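Quick entry between incubations.
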Amino acid sequence: MSSYSLPEAVPAASSRRLSGNAVWALLLSLPLLWLLVFLIVPVLVVLIVSFFQPTLSGFERAFTLDNYRALLSSGPFFSTLLNTLLSALITTVVTFLVGFWVAYYLALVVPNLRTRFALFIIALAPFFTSFLIRAVAWIPMMGREGVLNSALLSLGITSQPLDFLLFSNFAVRVAMAQLYLLFMISPIFFSLSTIEPAVLEAARDMGARWWSILWEILLPLARPGIVIGAVFVFVLSMGDFATVRLIGGGASTSVGLSIQNFVTYMQFPQAAAAASILVLVTVLGVVLLLRWGAIGEEL
Amino acid sequence: MTILAQNERPADDGLVASGQRGTVVLRGVSKRFGSTTAVDGVDLTIPGGSYVVLLGPSGCGKTTLLRMVGGHEVADAGDILLDGVRLNDVPAAQRDISTVFQHYALFPHKTVYENVEFGLKMRRLSPDERQRRVNEALAFMDLTNLRDRLPKQLSGGQQQRVALARALVTQPTVLLLDEPLGDLDRLLQLRMRVELRTLQRRLRITFIHVTHNQEEALAIADQIVVMQNGQIRQVGSPQAVYRRPTNLFTASFMGDNNILAGRVASVDGDGILLECEGLRLRARSAPEPVVPGQAIHAAIRASTVRVRQEAAAGATLPPNCVAARATFVEYLGDTVKLHCQTASGLALVAKVPEQDPSWQGIREDETDLMLEWDEDDVQLLTS
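Done. Structure below.
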């Protein structure tokens, strides 16, 4: 008989250790509970209330489709929904067009890793202040007597102040693009940062010019980041009402703002129905984005 | 096969015809990064169709030199010529040179086929021509059944073949390989280095290969270029570099050399007598003329040292002979390495074949040994 004498395995310190599965279950249960209490339950409540009969002082618990019927047959609500969708799409495209190059510069042009992250933090700096302050800060910039109009007037580019710079759809979209830009820059920056420099060098070695490298290498490899950034910006600007109220000043509308108005007049079922429609449209948009991005393969 | 048929390469195997394309000449090439000099006045001629290995430790400038040839780094001074044409200002894409990058740098989002096709697409070849040449290159590198895979779905060896196919599909006259075997496990390294050599023989184009692994360089190269601190220390065939190192760096980098510091005692017509730390050595010749009294290093390859079990009888031993004891017998399988110490405290290593009975019965720190070697095997390190 052949026998090997090796030191015996040391028994586990404790036989009553939690199994791996139990640890995972414990770790995951807390966020799941959080999601249940603060997301799933409220969404269900909103959905249920949207089917209730509105009364002058609130609602009574009687099932009806009238809320949806009224909203979907109302021209103003429809144009509000379209305007919200348009604003969200424009904001997403603009943040992509601007944010991609910021991310490109940070990830691929800045050579030193430390400088790169320092610049990234600086790009983050405006987001250290509150959302409202940044939105309000647009008013002295864009107003009739604001910085931009004064500059245009004194340079003689215009003879009178431009009104569309504030309290307009244009102003809302500019402000939202600025407010949400970071949500586009960050994921693209991280996507581009993972590209090996040698890959770009190999492309150049094989004769790729700047344009081909962008089209053949950078954009495809940044696609997960672009899609994630687009989802962030799209969702945020679909739900926006504060920017619309402050910068739009009544000249711009959004579903979020309508919901707020419904709530102000205690029309909870209508608010809930509008919210449900908004969520549905937003989710559809996100699904389309993810499908276009075919993001499943990358992640 | 287009890859092979290009520019009517000579048909005779292994012969490097003079005037063959792919001759790279470097003249006084230098490159600095900030205050460090990566490459320092390198002069080198790489004959067309040869397999040249740039060998040296990390940071010796070998990769920088390769990158300058490839056009990925700009030389601060000197000329880089390919077949007589100055390349310094020619962009990488327009050089008739391809690179297999370290870690291969495959395009992670493109399939094997698309990776190989990329260079042809950038050269705006017609789709038909592209398809024909990619298919040929894939067949040539035995990748046809992997054409639709992504790089992450390939093994290290397969990724390397894709990198080779991608570099060769544009029919370069020079192929640069930056540590091409570094990412592979040892067994695959041994196989792939044979394949690289075979591939170069079939293609008859110039291969310039960078590595820090001496064994790999010895196995694969026509010419080895040993580099240190941005300078070339020795150029020669594997045998020349291995057996006849001319300088201290090459002798220590090529491994398993006993290196002794000493002085020239006398020079006569037959050879050179040296005094090295109480040991007398006799060498046949030196790479450069030496004079008595000159400080010098000598190298004796461990495998040329013979071992006898015998106590030192007389008081004086002839040169190239010393009494010692083994402090450690290192059994390596095919060879046995005897770490010895002389009476004067000098450490010497002898390496004997495993089948050689001379090492058997040697007991560490007990058995009296006589170490001996030929004067032909004493290599003076003068340059």
